[in-house]
């Protein structure tokens, strides 16, 4: 198959969809791989490395002209012109928070396969997990950074010092993002509370943290109480493929401490904080009611060396199967099929259909299974 790897153009997005090692795996399998010139530089990967792996360096138009295009982030508006009916696109899409992109994919008839909705037989999300791990750890780092008074925060040190209390950190959602945010916060010496709707998950978190975090059932009352007492709130809620529920409301903000910080990792799915909006690495924060909001939608892009390799470690196996069999690779694997979000002008992810009140087939129906 003819495979293209364009350069990411989202603001300060430094990841790349394939490493030279992954490209070598594709070329050894007999595939023709083209990589946009300088696509890997942000991750410290030179064009020469891709050439040695068997790729050809090309323009953006040529990379997008391939049968199968592999990306990291969703196409931006300036890239919509590359979408077409005979294109198979494999990337993060997050369509539930991206109306214009959803419409563009449907209008073009593109087959869009989203990393974030591919599932493993155990119900996990193997292609979302590595970036959730990075973003969760970064959320705590970002929160600790913006708690500095010089950056608009309260001036609270995460771990405190002897005789002075540590920061209070509330994490809403105990999944991969929340667990990794908690690991960092506990490591920094903060006082950590995790909220989740699953009692079994709270039991698990209580066990793995050995009582070093407080756990609470996630409901409106507990969220209100927790955010009011927090120096840092991390939004870590995920409903696969769907828009994130708004759990921290605008009316809660005045109850929060002046200079407290919110980092909403769910922003790429619309956010679980009512007042969050997507920001970029060059302008990451804004203030509402005295609360610092951090809403960068591509957090791992700031740590591209780690993020690119962590992502490709997981995507390369799926990419090889997709390159070898096209949509038949999805038909052969029910979990992989869940990644199909659009096909032939139809929406194939019911959660996205619900977000936009649009008709949607299941992936199984669209693939004729």
Structural summary, described in words:
It is built from 13 helices and 15 strands. The protein is α/β, with parallel strands linked by helices. The protein has an eight-stranded mixed beta sheet with strand order 3-2-1-4-5-6-14-15, with helices on both faces. A seven-stranded mixed beta sheet has the order 9-8-7-10-11-13-12, with helices on both faces. It folds into two domains: 2-118 and 304-366, NAD(P)-binding Rossmann-like Domain (Rossmann fold); 129-302, Rossmann fold, CATH 3.40.50.720.
| pLDDT < 50 stretches | none
Query: In CATH terms, what is the architecture of the largest domain?
Result: 3-Layer(aba) Sandwich
Distance between the termini: 24 Å
The SS-based structural class is alpha/beta
What is the CA-atom radius of gyration, in angstroms?
A: 21 Å
- Strand line-up of the largest beta sheet: 3-2-1-4-5-6-14-15
The fraction of residues assigned to DSSP E strands is 15-25%
Form type = globular
Number of strand elements: 15
| Integer average pLDDT | 97
CATH T-level fold name of the largest domain: Rossmann fold
- SSE string: EHEHEHEEHEHEHEHEHEEEEHHHEEHH
| CATH homologous superfamily grouping of the largest domain | NAD(P)-binding Rossmann-like Domain
- Main sheet: strands, sense, barrel: 8 strands, mixed
The CATH C-level name of the largest domain is: Alpha Beta
Total domains: 2
Instruction: Give the fraction of residues assigned to helices.
Output: 25-40%
């Amino acid at each position: 198959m003819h495979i293209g790897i364009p350069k990411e153009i989202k603001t300060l997005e430094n990841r790349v969809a394939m490493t030279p090692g992954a490209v070598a795996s594709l070329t050894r399998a007999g595939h023709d791989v083209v990589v946009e010139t300088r696509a890997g530089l942000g991750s410290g990967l030179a064009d020469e490395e891709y050439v040695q792996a068997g790729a050809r360096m090309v323009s953006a138009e040529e990379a997008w002209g391939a049968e199968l295009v592999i990306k990291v982030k969703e196409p931006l508006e300036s890239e919509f012109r590359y979408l077409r009916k005979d294109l198979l696109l494999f990337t993060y899409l997050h369509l539930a928070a991206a109306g214009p992109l959803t419409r563009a994919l449907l209008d073009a008839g593109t087959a869009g396969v989203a990393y974030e909705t591919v599932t493993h037989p155990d119900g996990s999300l193997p292609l979302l997990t590595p970036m959730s791990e990075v973003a969760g750890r970064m959320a705590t780092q970002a929160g600790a950074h913006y708690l500095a008074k010089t950056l608009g925060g309260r001036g609270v040190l995460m771990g405190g010092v002897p005789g002075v209390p540590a920061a209070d950190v509330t994490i809403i959602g105990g999944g991969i993002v929340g667990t990794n945010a908690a690991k960092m916060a506990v490591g920094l010496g903060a006082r950590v509370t995790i909220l989740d709707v699953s009692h079994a998950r709270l039991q698990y978190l209580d066990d793995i943290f050995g009582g070093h975090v407080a756990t609470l059932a996630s409901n409106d009352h507990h969220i209100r109480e927790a955010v009011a007492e927090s120096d840092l709130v991390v939004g870590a809620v995920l409903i696969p493929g769907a828009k994130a529920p708004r759990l921290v409301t605008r009316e809660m903000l005045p109850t929060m401490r002046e200079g407290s910080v919110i980092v909403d990792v769910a922003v790429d799915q619309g956010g679980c904080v009512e007042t969050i909006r997507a920001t970029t690495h060059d302008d990451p924060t804004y203030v509402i009611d005295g609360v610092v909001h951090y809403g960068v939608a591509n957090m791992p892009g700031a740590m591209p060396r780690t993020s690119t390799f962590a992502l490709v470690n997981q995507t390369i196996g799926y990419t090889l199967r997709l390159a070898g069999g096209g949509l038949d690779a999805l038909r052969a694997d029910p979990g992989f099929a869940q990644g199909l979000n659009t096909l032939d002008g139809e929406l194939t992810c019911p959660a996205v259909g619900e977000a936009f009140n649009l008709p949607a087939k299941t992936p199984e129906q669209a693939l004729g299974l």
